[in-house]
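Bug report

Summary: structure tokens for [FeFe] hydrogenase H-cluster maturation GTPase HydF differ between web form and batch submission.
Environment: batch mode, default settings.
Steps: 1) Submit the sequence below via batch. 2) Compare with the web form result.

Sequence submitted:
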Amino acid sequence: MGLNDTPSSDRIHIGFFGQRNAGKSSLVNAVTGQELAVVSDVKGTTTDPVYKSMELLPLGPVMIIDTPGFDDEGALGELRVKKTKQVLNKTDVAVLVVDAAKGLSGSDRELLRLFQDKEINYIIAFNKSDLLEVKTGSEITSGADGTNQSGREIYVSAKQHEGIEELKERISRLTVTGNLKLQIVGDLIHPSDFVVLVVPIDKAAPKGRLILPQQQTIRDILEADAAAIVVKEYELRETLENLGKRPALVITDSQVFAKVSADTPRDIPLTSFSILMARYKGLLETAVKGVAAVERLKDGDSVLIVEGCTHHRQCDDIGSVKIPRWLGQYTGKQLNCKTAMGAVFPEDLSEYALVIHCGGCMLNEREVKYRMKCAEDQNVPITNYGIVIAYMQGILKRSIEIFPHLLMEIED
Ligand SMILES: Nc1nc2c(ncn2[C@@H]2O[C@H](COP(=O)(O)OP(=O)(O)O)[C@@H](O)[C@H]2O)c(=O)[nH]1
Ligand SMILES: [Mg+2]
């Protein structure tokens, strides 16, 4: 990802679903104006979800996702259907692609039920309208089940490029409604404030760049008309002494929280990137409540540590090595720590006494909320890297002081 790109986690995710050969890949190509998905009359050509980030006007930056057919069969087919279901967990708007000549199938109705369960906005695109004998120019106003589907249905032809612009406009209209613009830190500071960011640069840090939460935070501070001052942990004390103005906030990498806490005068608010990101993803409150489970861990308990992505060496080291070690030292118990990596989140969490998730910088809000809900539904406490590290180091209290309602959670 380039520095000027919108992070994929901040893009509205638009998924194309439906039966094999309905024309999902063709429609994705028509909407994106690119031949990015393989089109074929051989059923089951699309075997893995295909992601494409693009600007969709008037909406802005989106992520378009092409999926394998939802009616796929056999062992491999089942695996593909499973992958498609995982895509649903991050989908903000779904396009159900239906072969207009065939009409809605059983698997299409199952998809519609899933959209409704997961509260995903959707559009039904009847594709291959060029094959219809009687051209249906306008949408149907009542669905097969008699409910009013007005505005949800549209006839298109990927082949003839008909109805594509209208489809894009409908998608945009669906997503624009009720979209809350969340801020990482902008709502906590004022114009012309100074915010000091502490970013350790060690061997594990990606060469030549800042990691995503750091980039996003700097951007957010600038958008709030405040100033961001970025230092390494060894320069913090001197910077604070020479700043000439009290910073509104110090934000540090969790790994050096203890040193930064010692070097930051008590009257200056201090927090970490991971705590701000957890709040941004809607995970903070649950994570603060969940961390209390650390005190209840017993010998032989299993703890699941979840990495949202596979390519952050720094996170990997924290998740697979450091947190298990620190947990063992803090609790003095023999724990069974397992690490789950990448896009897949285990559905059955019943064997775990605690789930510890990464900051989720590569996951969109919907996906993080889904994971949180999975744990809550199964009564398994869930927390995250930043919160559990801060807790074990005895600095959680200080790092959430800027959120007084949360402070009450752990003081009780
Ligand atoms: N006549 C017609 N054929 C289409 C249209 N869209 C796709 N097809 C054909 O339907 C077949 C399946 O298309 P594909 O995009 O691979 O479907 P997918 O399996 O849903 O991704 C291919 O042979 C396409 O050329 C359309 O609008 N009209
Ligand atoms: Mg396909």
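Above is the batch result. After comparison, the two runs are identical; trailing whitespace caused the diff. The chain has a mean pLDDT of 84. The domain at 8-176 is CATH 3.40.50.300 (Rossmann fold).
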